[in-house]
């Protein structure tokens, strides 16, 4: 059963169409990824869903509530974790959680009980009495997520949950997101880290130039990429770049490139590596290793959007959205 239905959603600013007839649905209890390059329309789409922007046309229904006509009612059943924390620096962790709970109308005893439970669950109990400004980036991220779920929303919107934090904190947050799914919370996730999307999401929608270009389960995306492209990495004792013309002549159906000292061979059909090994050895290049590489979600992303995933992550780290 779907908890979110978005139908023919559009947003125009004067003559510029930021979002064009976007349509998708999100099932109850799934982690739904929303990916695309900067300026693709991700933020505008999410802002319309959560009530921060009004659509030019189209409809949005969340848990049976019309998000356009009944924005306040819809916001009561959603949680929001922005990419930059919206909590108060001078309040401690416990106070921040209680304050957020009060905004959703939770009674004093109820919100204090839930705040203590979340501080314990998120391993922040010892930091509960410290001001938020004294928290590390990872701790701030965890408390922001706790604040987003304190009222037990049916659907949680998470924007860049692991950006700018250390590896261990990122691992903990991925585990928290998985735990939310296990307890039945639906998660709508945007991220510039394709690995996070591959690890966490059940399905992914790709948006480019304001339009959805692909929606599919992660396993289907990976399987289709695997079927369409076969990759082998050759570790050599030298560079094969000097033999580019001969490689193209002898192996016209393959593509070659150098990546960090590795000769990478691409083909649309499975192929035997022996002729290539023989070619390299005839040219005086010893083959230390030949390894088949399974395409990743990053490969799918690059193919669909035309933007390198590493560049996307670097743009986010540089503060550009």
What does this entry look like structurally?
The chain is an alpha/beta fold and 321 residues long. It folds into two domains: 2-217, 3-Layer(aba) Sandwich (Rossmann fold), CATH 3.40.50.300; 230-294, Alpha-Beta Plaits (2-Layer Sandwich). It has helices at residues 42-50, 71-76, 93-103, 108-121, 137-149, 167-182, 194-200, 218-228, 244-250, 274-282, 297-305, 309-317; strands at 2-13, 16-27, 31-35, 57-62, 65-66, 78-81, 155-159, 186-190, 203-208, 211-217, 230-236, 255-259, 262-267, 287-293. It has a six-stranded mixed beta sheet with strand order 6-7-8-3-9-10, with helices on both faces. A four-stranded antiparallel beta sheet has the order 2-1-4-5. A four-stranded antiparallel beta sheet has the order 12-13-11-14. A hairpin with a 2-residue loop joins strand 4 and strand 5. Helix 3 (93-103) packs across helix 4 and helix 3 (93-103) runs parallel beside helix 5 (137-149). It is elongated and about 80 Å long. The model has no long low-confidence stretch (mean pLDDT 89).
